Amino acid sequence: MTDPIVDVSTKPSFLRCAHPSPYPEVRVERPNPRYAALLLEDYAGAVSELTAITQYSYHHFVFEKNHPELAQLLSCVAVVEMHHLEILGETIIKLGADPRYRVVGPSGCDKYWDASSVFYGTDVCDRLSADVTGEWAAIANYKKHAAMIDDRFVKGILERIILDELFHITLFERAIAKYCTPQLPVPG
What we know:
It contains five helices and two strands, in the order αααββαα. The protein is mainly alpha-helical and 188 residues long. It has one domain (30-179): Ferritin, core subunit, four-helix bundle (Ferritin, Up-down Bundle), CATH 1.20.1260. It has a two-stranded antiparallel ribbon with strand order 1-2. Strand 1 (102-104) and strand 2 (110-112) form a beta hairpin.
């Protein structure tokens, strides 16, 4: 029997790919459109929850036939990213902005999300590597935005999301070790 990357038998589906820490309540100290604009980048920018959901869903579909365990992993992680999207959307509303799938550019013009940010890839290993790279990029954005936001509630939300992203990296790295590490022949 192979060792599964994600334990599917003992945890509810949502929690299998999430860090075990509880999520904080979605609240803000006060409305702040500037903070909302920063969170829109995490919500629906090039490196965002929306991009991750779409990319992981695509990877799930292409893995399903030949690598059902990987397909299940990508679907599981995508569900956690959907929860992040929901949390960020609620936070953006509380900060006083409309959570459309867009970022606000430097001139104040909206740039709407599109699928060109998704890494489609060509094989298991480049897709999983891109998934790890995307998680690290998301963490860097969350940390940058947390440093720019002076709202303890929003910072708490971002810090909790980062825990999930770090856990996703662990899950993806396990998959890379299982599917992408060259197997050396046993001397004999």
